[in-house]
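Revision sheet: structure tokens.
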Amino acid sequence: MGFEGYSILELQQVKGFARELFGFLILSLKIAIAEQYGYPSKMKTLLEFFKDSSSLNGNNATFVENLYEQFLEDPESVEPGWRQRFGEIHNGVAYEIPHGPIVERFGQLAQKPQTRIAQLQGFTEESVKKQSAVARLINHYRVRGHQIASNNPLGGDIPALTDMDPAYYGLSELDMDTLFDTGALYGADKLPLREIIKRLKEIYCGSIGSEYMYIVDTHIRRWLITRIESYTANLKFESEKKIWLLKLLTAAEGIEQYLQNKFVGQKRFSLEGAESLIPVLDELIQLSGAKGVKEVVIGMAHRGRLNVLINVLGKSPSSLFSEFSGASTSHPPGMNSGDVKYHMGFSSNVETPGGPVHLTMAFNPSHLEIINPVVEGSVKARQDRAGDNGKNAVIPVLIHGDAAFSGQGIVMETLNMSQTRAFNTGGTVHIVINNQIGFTTSNPLDARSTLYCTDVAGMVQAPVFHVNGDDPEAVIFVTKLALDFRMTFNKDVVIDIICYRRLGHNEADEPSTTQPLMYKKIRSLKTSRRVYAEKLIQENVISREETTAMELSYQQQLEAGVIVSRPVLDSNIYSYSAQWNQFLNQNWDSPCRTAVSLDHIRYCNDRMLRLPAGFELHPRVAKVMENRRKMAAGGMPLDWGFAENMAYATLLIEKFHVRLTGQDVGRGTFVHRHAVLHNQIDNETYTPLKHLDKDQGRVQIYDSLLSEAGVLGFEYGYSTTMPNTLVIWEAQFGDFANGAQVVIDQFISSGETKWGRLCGLVMLLPHGFEGQGPEHSSARLERYLQLCAEHNIQVCCPTTPAQIFHLLRRQLIREFRKPLIVMSPKSLLRHKLAISTLEELTDGEFMPVIGEHDNIDPKKISRLIFCAGKVYYDLLEARQLDGLKNVAIARLEQLYPFPAELFKAEIAKYPNLKEFVWCQEEPQNQGAWYQSKHHFSDNLKSNIIVSYVGREASASPAVGHFHVHIEQQKAVVQSALYGSPSGK
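Predicted:
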């Protein structure tokens, strides 16, 4: 019997049957011993000997199986006699399960008298082949049954899979009533083949199509097999449960009908056709509470959002109706512009069997799946707050559209983050509202290149359950299974609700113009509620009159404007919302002291220099640490790395938390930070910031995966949840943030004014023209300045170590939470002039404007150069070299909010000023010029000439040739100092 045509996976699935074959192996070995040395005296018959030896009656099978697996891993580890026997049977094949070789071995034994023992038990070569065929058939249902499942409410052609036909395995009608080993299918060890096939079709080809056999972890796969194959046994609902399901479907359908009739033509992105989402969420929340979950955070786009808010989270219908009518005026502080109703978030508390559960619906713009990492980040923050069992106290639930799940790259990024140290939230329950159409005019054939919209989930080996949305009981079974999986293994799981969209992309859209056949079918379908109601009527669970009364009662509740979901508990149960109150309505310019004592600095530095015994630093890192010792002692000027680390350390001592992620952040892209140290002996890591004090704040420093949108979205979500954590995302180069522009535009810059969501996220964006070409020069400063309005964000260009020290500390110490965009330096990290003193840390503060430092007579100044960033040092060195006395240089360290009063105070120092020059490295159409020049004009006297100096407008941020860069940079500096690129 050969193995051509069998996959490794198929061979692995006959492992249970192989246990029986191992029993034969024992038998053959013992018979061989008996032939050579004589049968044991106690043996009366060969049959008794077989019974004593059989794997069916003893523990020998497990022993031999384990011994054989040990042989496969290391033949030399097995005793020589066994090694020889296994070698003969295994015969050098590459697969793990010794199926064919064992069968062949017993085929050879057929010529010997003892083979009659096997025949007495029904074991012949033919029966072994038949059992093998059945095992392979069972396996194929597990692997491919989902492809022929009847789980599409729209129907459609089911493919004919030849390898699902019993005849493909040599099984015929004559075998249908033969008993075969089932591998404990449905809890039965043996069943007739006819019953085996019937049960397999019911489990794998009915309302649920299960994909999980690609999971490589055998334990997880076996757990799923056990749970999935108990489908019928666990699909027994009491009448009360069935009536509750009907009530939920009635609510899901009822709110849509009410809105359609009362607010004709208004967009609401109806859930009609996918009403089973409401039972899924209700079941998920109740079961979560029973398992000890305290918070559920939900992220979803707009389809079905209003339905979920009303029927699951308990939003007041009257409040929603006010939003529809335009009469609603209530909004959180800071929410000036607002947003459409189907983007708004909500939170509430509901009772469950395990106590109150806090529900949060995240605010979400129209960028669909971009909410995914934001929710994950918020969940991570909540889990950190919850403590050691946080991953099982707070769970994320993400609701996707089918086309978006397969089409949006952020889905892949978020999945890829799910099991990493920095971003693991203990598994997400993904729910796909599979309308089978992306948007009204799309052809499903153009929506993706994969069989299912959920195939991307296979990258993290998440099981996927494709369930018929018109079968609410199957939906509930899958929900229970998915939640149990998540809570057991802390991994992602996907519920794919196969349904349809009864209306178009929105309520004003006419879908049949581009999808005539699909919508002809849809309009002929009964609603999910009606299908289930008729089923319960036939089962005598409920009468037709009662179903009608149920509908009427729901509509009456809506008319009354009362809450129609499960009862909502007092909001005081969840106390964390109040943590943001102190940051509301604060004055931007409220004073705060960021300086620290010298003793404080030296204590922190001393702690950071203490390493575990035997920890060997790289020589270059050891030099950095030694220099930091000297800096704290006052023997060296402070560099950037020292000041930045001191900012983190002092905040941690003050019991604030620090979270820093991004590519290379542990050591820093430009090797300046060294916050995470690596032992050169064993590559173990040590983070000194974690070992400052026993009662310090929490530290999380992670080198992130190669993602911008996913990671930045995650950190935004984290920062909106934890106001007392310094949350920082650092780009490897500033322009890498381009890949996360949607997060910046839709959340960071506008989240407060749209939704009232405060955020203190810090973005460190390396910026500066160093001759490294277009992609590694500019952090696109102009883009952030273009987003500035209403004091929404801070944009700063610190140029000294003391400035970054105070800037980072200010972010947490003042009672104000605004995103901070830092154009952080590259060459300045080690520039000989970019230094600070200990006194600037102990007595100073962040300065939005830094005026002239050199000893220059203000009366002689006729030309004042203002700049931001690295170019200051180029200008300073050139002026000192030329000995100019009539030119002053000042730095604008905070570009937004523009420090008008400090700017005017600097201008006032120079009574004879004639020319104001804005100098920048960036091309004229980039950088700060176009977004800031009105600030200059508004705060200067009319007789002062305002001029721009910098590179000419360019489509590209920078040139690619280093020598051209040098020429351009020199021309910029000379033009700023002298008014001409030629200089003097």
